[in-house]
Amino acid sequence: MISNELGATAPSLPAYLLYPIALLSLVIILFVMARTRDRSAGFVIGASWLRYVMSAFHTITFRPLVAGMSANALASMGLFIVGLMNINLRHLQLRYLLPFYVLIALAVVSALANDGFTPGLVTVITKHGYLIVIVLATYGAMSRGRGGDFMTAMLWTFFPVLIWQMLSVVLGYGKMTETDVNDISYIGGYNHEATFSVMLATCLTIACFATGINRQLRLGIVLLCIGGVVLANYRTTLVAIVPLVLMFFASSSLSRFPWRDRPFVVSALIVIGAIALGVLSLFFAERFNDVTVATSGDVNFFKPPNEYTVEEGRLLSGRPAIWSSYIYAWLQGDLTDYVIGFGPESWNDAFPLYAHNTLVNYLYEYGVVGVVIILWVWGSMLVSALRVRHPQAGILVGAHLCYIVLNMATMPMWMVEGNIMYGLICGYTLYLLSLQRQPVT
Q: Rounded distance, CA 129 to CA 127, Å?
C-alpha cells in the first residue's frame, strides 16, 4: 500500500512536537465527538483524525507488523468494521453505490483470474469498503444533523495537520521536491507531499462545505488551506484545487447580489479570475517550467519507457515515463490481462513506483473494464452533483472536479486519505440530493 517513493526521505518532526500536539488534539476530538451526539458523525470525525495523526508517525506506523501489514493498514481494516457498525445498514442498498460494488466485484474477479485470493485483494476490498462506509456515515450524519454542524465539527480533525505544518515552516523541517528545481515542501513531518496535500485539499473541501460557521472565519480557513497547499508545493494538488476555489469564490460573491445583477457580476469575476490566473502563472513559472516544455509539442511521450532520454524522464516528475512503463507492460499481457488486468495491487511486484495516475493504474491492474468502471464511479457521482439544486451546488461540482483532477497525476483512490476526501464529497452529494426528494433511494 506504500510505494518506495512514499516512504522516502521525508524527515519526521521530533517527538517533543509530535506527541504533545497529538495528545492535545485527541482531547479536542473526543470533546467534538461527544458534542455531535451522532454515531455516524462521531465515527467519521474519529476515524479521520486517527488516520491523519497515525500518518504523522510514519516512521512507526508504516513498518510491517502482522503478515506484512503496517499499523496503518491494520487500523484501516479495523475502522472499516467499526464503520459498518455505525451506519444505517439499509443505506447499503442505495442505487448510487452500485458502481462502487461493481468496482469491488471486478477486483475479486481480477484476483481470481490471476493469483487467486491475495493480501492485495484484502487491501483493495478494505479501501473500497472504507470509502463506502465514509460515504454513508457522512450522508447519515448530515441527514440527522443541523445544517452545516457536521462539516464544522469535521474541521477540528485538521487541527494537528495544520499545526504541524506551521511548525515545520517555522523550524525549517522541509522535504526536497521530486523535480530538479531546488524547492522545498513543508509537509509537517509527514512522509510525502502527495498524501499531505490531499489532507489539505480535504480540509479545503470541508471548509467550502461548512455553511454553519461565520462567513469571515470560513473564508479565513479557506485561505489558510490554500496557503498550506502552496507550502506543501505539490503541483498536482495546486492545479486540482483550482475548480473548487473558483466555484467557492464565485458562489460566495454571487450570493450577495440579486438575480438581475448577477450577469454583470459573472462578467467581472471572469475578468478578475483571468487576471489572477495570469499573476499566479508568473509566480509559479519556475515550478511549472517543465509543464510548459512537456506541452510544447517538441517532446514525444508516446513511446516505450526504454526510449526516454534522461531529460525526458525528468519532465513532470517522471510521470510520463512511469505511465509508459505501466501501459507497455499491460500491452505485453494476454487477452485476459487486456480485459481485467493483472490483479489488485499487482503493481507492487512489477514496478518500484506507483502509477501516479488512477486510470493508468486501473488499466494495468483491472484492464479496459477497470478503466470503464472507475470512470463510471466518478461520472455517476459527478452527474448526481450536477442534478443538485442548492446554493452549494456549484461548490459541490467544484469538489468533484478537484478530486477527478487529483487522480490524473496522483492516486487519492489508492490512499485512505483520498478515500476520506471522496467519501465526504459523495456523502454530501447524497445529502443535498435528499433535500430535493426524501429519501435518496
A: 5
- Among 62, 61, 35, 57, smallest CA distance to 46 is for 35
- How many CB atoms within 10 Å of residue 286? 12
Note the pLDDT tens digit of each residue in 170-180: 998 887 665 54
Phi-psi region of 2 (alpha: psi -120 to 50; beta: other; left: phi over 0): beta
Sequence-distant (≥ 6) Cβ neighbours of residue 77 within 8 angstroms: 69, 122, 126
> How many C-beta atoms surround the C-beta of residue 410 within 10 A?
29
Grid cell in block for residue 279: 499573476
Which alpha helices (H) appear in 10-70, and where do they start and end? 15-36, 39-56, 58-61
How far is residue 135's CA from residue 97's CA, in Å, rounded to a whole number?
9
Supply the pLDDT for residue 12.
82
C-beta of residue 194 within 8 angstroms of C-beta of residue 47? no
CA 131 from centroid of its chain's CA atoms: 11
pTM score of the predicted model: 0.91
pLDDT at residue 289, rounded to an integer: 56
- The per-residue pLDDT for range 224-266, each reduced to its tens digit, is 999 999 999 898 999 999 999 999 988 876 556 555 555 555 5
Q: What is the pLDDT of residues 82-128, one digit of tens each?
A: 999 999 999 999 999 999 999 999 999 999 999 777 788 999 999 99
Which is nearest to 319 in space by CA: 426, 218, 235?
Answer: 235
Q: How many CA atoms lie within 13 A of 309 on its CB side?
A: 4
Instruction: Name every residue whose Cβ is closer than 8 Å to that of residue 132 and which is 6 or more positions away in sequence.
Output: 92, 97, 100, 423
Answer whether 314's CB lies under 8 Å from 307's CB. Answer: no
- Number of residues in the chain: 441
